[in-house]
Amino acid sequence: MAKKKKLRTSAKRILGLCVGISVFMFAFDSIRRNVIIITTDDKISIEGSFLPKNALPPPVSTVAFDPNSRPTKTSVATLKKAGFTEENFTSDRLSKGLLAIADENSMLYIDNPEKSVNLAEKHNEFYTVEGDNVTLDADAVNALNRLMEDYNKATDFADFVVYGTTNTYTAPDSVCPRYFAERSNGCTVDLALLSVGSYIGFDGLDAEGWVVQNCAKYGFIVRYPEGKSQITGEEYCPWHLRYVGKVHADIMAEKNMCLEEYIDFLKGYDSDKPYSHTVGGTAYIVYSVESTGDTTAVKVPSGREYSVSGDNRGTYIISYER
C-alpha cells in the first residue's frame, strides 16, 4: 500500500514539472518576440523611391513579335560543335546543279564545266554514240556505262545509241523530235535504237524497257515519266534520261515522284530536320534551304564532302553521306 502511494506522489511531481516547463517556455518566447521586434525596428532603414499608394506601375517598353523575322546568324563555334559550318551561296547557283529545273524563262547552266568529257571517247562497247564530239558530265558517263553493261547482261542486247546530249538533233525527221531546255546542264541523255542501216525511236517497250525500269539504280531518271504530264507539262518521253545522282533517283523511284514533285517534297526538310535515305547500305542526308537574296548563308556539314544543287526556283538542296 505504501508502495502505491509513493508511485502516485512521483507521478504528480513529474506532471507538475512538465506544466512548469511549458509555462516557462511560453513566457520566454513572448519576451524573445518583443525583444526582436524592438531591435529590428531600431536597426532597419529602407531607402529608395516608392509608388504612392494605389498608383499603377509605369508601362514596360516591349518590341512586337514579327512572324516574318529571320533568326540571327548562328555562331561559328555553335555550328562546329554541332558538326556544321556556314557557306555563302550566291543566287546564280540556283540555276546550277543536278536538280535544277529549266523553264521557258530560266535556263540551266553547267555546274562544273571541267567535269564535262567527250562521251564518244569514254563510252563502252555496250552501246553506240552518234557523233564525234558529244559532251556529258563525267559522273553521268560512268553511270551510263554501268547501266548499259548491265542491260547487256540482262538482255544480251547492245542496241542503244546515244543520239545526243547537250545538242540533240531535233528536226522533224529526228527520232528525238522534242527539244528540252534542260539539256544545257550537261547531264541529259537522249536515246535511240539501232536498226538495219538506221536509227529508230525508243518507246520504252519490249526488252529495251529494262533501261526505263532500272535506270534509277544508276542515278538516272526518266525526266518526263508516264502519268505525270499534268505536273511536268510534257508527255511521256522514255528516250530522255537525266542524271540526278543515285540517292535522288532512288528516292524518286521509291516514291513514284517526278522531279517537280521531289523538289516540293524536299521543302519540308531543313538542316535541323533533314530527310534520311539509305541506298545500297549507305545512309544519306538530304535537306533544302530557301534563298534569302543575292547571297544566302547555308548550313553545310563540316569536314566532309557534300553536294549542293539549286532547283532554279529559289531553293538550295544539300546532300551528303551520313
The arrangement of helices and strands along the chain is HHEEHEEHEEEHEHEHHEEEEE
Question: Poorly predicted ranges (pLDDT <50, ≥5 residues)?
Answer: 1-9, 35-48, 60-78
Mean pLDDT equals 84
Described by the principal axes of the CA atoms, the overall outline is globular
Based on the coordinates given, report the CATH architecture of the largest domain: 2-Layer Sandwich
Structural class: alpha+beta
User: Which strand-content bin applies to the residues?
Assistant: 15-25%
Set out the fold topology.
Blueprint: H1 2-43, H2 76-81, E1 84-90, E2 116-118, H3 119-122, E3 128-129, E4 135-137, H4 138-155, E5 160-164, E6 188-195, E7 198-201, H5 209-214, E8 220-222, H6 229-232, E9 240-243, H7 246-255, H8 259-266, E10 275-279, E11 282-290, E12 295-301, E13 307-310, E14 315-321
Parallel strand pairs: 3-5
Antiparallel strand pairs: 1-12, 2-4, 5-6, 6-7, 6-9, 8-9, 10-11, 11-14, 13-14
Quick rundown:
The chain is 30% helix and 22% strand. It has 322 residues and is an alpha+beta fold. Residues 1-9, 35-48 and 60-78 have low confidence and may be disordered.
